[in-house]
Write a sequence for this structure.
């Protein structure tokens, strides 16, 4: 049974919303699922199903803790959590058990390139229970048409598909034809960067005034970069300072030729330009009204937050922020490496998640893709 979109709103009723997708809090796919669940559970009952390809999905991931995930762990909102079995047959049975008749909706969150064999099973269980189903697909900077078509084949039985860009929505609409799901767009699912990144990893670090201990930690972390790679790195340190100690510390660092120190106040326009041109940012102990962090979020760039023992107030809902211990160079080095792997991504602002949820459960209609010329057959090849 295919539910219609009454009043242009996808979800209706008061029962639980079932959300399935990757679970790792060390990866962007898992963090995005957590963020959507977190936004949903503020005013809704949510059942989360963790779906991972293998039991060792976190093995070998030398990555830093997500700041958004750290904030999630501090939430008290009740969420019923299940882990899908790795065996395909048992997983299908579990979906039928967890998606019960009367559920408000069933939402699958998909990352292109990861295992998608479970989507058919999830949608079949939703259809059997008479529950409205949606698949959300994250749009990446370098879209792969073959991967998108492969996912399209898996999610053909959904009531709706939500993607991050109009181009991908148009491509799916052509593939689905007249009998496939409705395809819609929301910016929260788009991780597309706005410009091509330089071959040089430009890192901009914002430190508190006269934070010589933090500067020492940062320089030791930067000096750990192998000599064979260092010409591809540039560290700009922004820190107001008195005396010449900070300058001497930079001069005596091993990779001093690739480090610059700026002790002047920076205008907002220059700060915007600096953040937008950086591959990654480092911000030490940002206050809740940190100008640097706010502009970093506006630019959608990956941020390493150097924190003390307390969890920073910033970063709620921003999936591009990572945590590092400002007293441990190895922690900073790992977080910086992690952030640079995310340099091609443009992260959505925190309010986009609530906007996504409001459009799903509220009265604002999702933006539908205009009708397109249809292919002669709905067969997916």
């Amino acid at each position: 049974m295919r539910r219609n979109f009454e009043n242009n709103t996808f979800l209706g009723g008061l029962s639980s919303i079932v959300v399935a997708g990757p679970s790792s809090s060390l990866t962007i796919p898992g963090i995005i699922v957590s963020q959507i669940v977190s936004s949903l559970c503020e005013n809704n009952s949510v059942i989360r199903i963790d779906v991972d390809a293998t039991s060792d999905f976190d093995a070998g991931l030398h990555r830093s803790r997500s700041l958004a995930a750290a904030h999630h762990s501090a939430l008290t909102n009740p969420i019923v959590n299940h882990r899908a079995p790795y065996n395909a047959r048992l997983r299908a049975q579990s979906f039928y058990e967890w998606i019960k008749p009367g559920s408000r909706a069933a939402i699958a969150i998909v990352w292109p390139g990861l295992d998608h064999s479970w989507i058919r099973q999830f949608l079949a269980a939703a259809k059997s229970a008479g529950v409205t189903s949606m698949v959300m697909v994250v749009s990446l900077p370098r879209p792969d048409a073959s991967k998108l078509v492969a996912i399209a084949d898996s999610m053909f039985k959904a009531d709706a598909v939500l993607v991050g860009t109009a181009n991908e929505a148009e491509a799916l609409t052509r593939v689905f034809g007249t009998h496939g799901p409705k395809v819609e767009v929301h910016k929260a699912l788009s991780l597309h960067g706005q410009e091509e990144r330089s071959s040089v990893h430009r890192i901009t670090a914002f430190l508190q005034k006269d934070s010589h201990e933090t500067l020492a930690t940062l320089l030791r972390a930067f000096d750990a970069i192998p000599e064979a790679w260092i010409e591809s790195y540039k560290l700009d340190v922004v820190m107001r300072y008195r005396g010449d100690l900070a300058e001497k510390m930079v001069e005596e660092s091993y990779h001093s030729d690739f480090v610059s120190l700026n002790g002047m106040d920076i205008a907002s326009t220059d700060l915007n330009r600096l953040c937008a041109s950086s591959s990654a940012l480092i911000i030490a102990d940002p206050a809740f009204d940190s100008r640097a962090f706010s502009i970093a979020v506006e630019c959608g760039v990956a941020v390493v937050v150097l924190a003390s023992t307390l969890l920073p107030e910033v970063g709620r809902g921003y999936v591009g922020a990572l945590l590092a211990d400002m007293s441990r160079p190895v922690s900073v080095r790992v977080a910086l490496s992690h952030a640079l792997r995310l340099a091609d991504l443009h992260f959505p602002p925190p309010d986009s998640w609530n906007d996504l949820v409001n459009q799903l459960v509220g009265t604002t209609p999702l933006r539908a893709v205009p009708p397109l010329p249809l292919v002669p057959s709905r067969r997916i090849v």
Q: What stands out?
A: The first strand starts at residue 17 and ends at 21.
